[in-house]
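YM 10:42: Glycosyltransferase sequence, as discussed on the call
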Amino acid sequence: MARVVLSSVLDPPMLERAVCTDSATRLHEVEPPSVRPPRAVVAIPARDEEERIEACLSALLAQRREHGAADVGLVLLANNCRDATVRRARRLLASSDMPHRVMSVSLPSERASAGAARALALDIASLWIGRGEGALLTTDADSRVGPDWIVRNLAGLRGACGAVAGRFVFDPAEAALLPRHLARRRRVEAAYEAALLALAARLDPQPHDPWPNHWTDSGASFALTLSAYRRIGGLPAVACGEDRALAAALARHDIPIRHDPDIVVTTSARLEGRAARGCAATLRERCDDRATPGDERLEALPVALRRMGLRARLRRAFGTGFRPGEWERRLGLRAGTLSGAASLRFGEAWARAEALSPLLRPLPLRPEEMEHHLAAAHRLLARLPAPGEALSSDQQV
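YM 10:58: structure's back
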């Protein structure tokens, strides 16, 4: 197949969702699939990944055979590749029985982003499935999914959840080359994340996402039902951070996401990546500047506890009677800010509260501050009952 040039259809200053859908439709029609539609499709964006694409695809092919995930197809969207990514992918897939579509596109430089490529790949995958029930899965071309990745994701989507988020670990050989201070920082951050999640499971439990869980929303491992994808209007049109934007859109629509700690992919720990402001850029920044603040969700413990408490109370208020004036006072908002919020979904109202309330402004911690807050979180956890058990009057936070 010849490379498809999309410069004319992707000309707007921002990659608008409607334009992206139109682009995917054109690509879908340029090279219609020759096999019947699968009920689940893995969508992978790739750019100059000739050294890693075969390992990525081999991991998918192996579990498809071993775990009976037969009705699963693949869309590989090669975005402005200048190397042998496409050739190597086609050669490997040609010897398999996996339904696949390898598509090469040329986006203008200002639009050649990870977000645009993943959106096109997912849209093409959704068009391939067509009508009825189906599932969309996505990973990265520099990642290797776990041996049961497909079946675990599909099992997670059969319940109440419209989406399943996995987590990633760095390739051990590459991670060993990172500075020691970064390895230590990552251990402390992982411990603090686990502590905050354990607190949230006690203070604002969510039955669809029980503890133990995680909070990674990464394109390296994400799955959602076709109906959920269409309900939110597709992948949000952002150049980077499209994975978190996707999770946020699902949350605004009250579509439950399970963050399954047993779904794991291995991804590159390289410092020179393909996506602007992606994982490689974050690693490089933290190598160069030890004082760089962490993820904004790794915030000061008092702020995190305030966030959990307000979220739990607002969730209950939406079930028993939401009074905008009362919540404007609680959140430190001007009168009238939440007028009409009672007609919103809970997820929409919470997103508005987080965006506007000065009480919910994130305060990300610097590395040297985090161990103090981690110790305080552990002390608090020692006082609280296990998840699912009621707090006594003297255990209120």
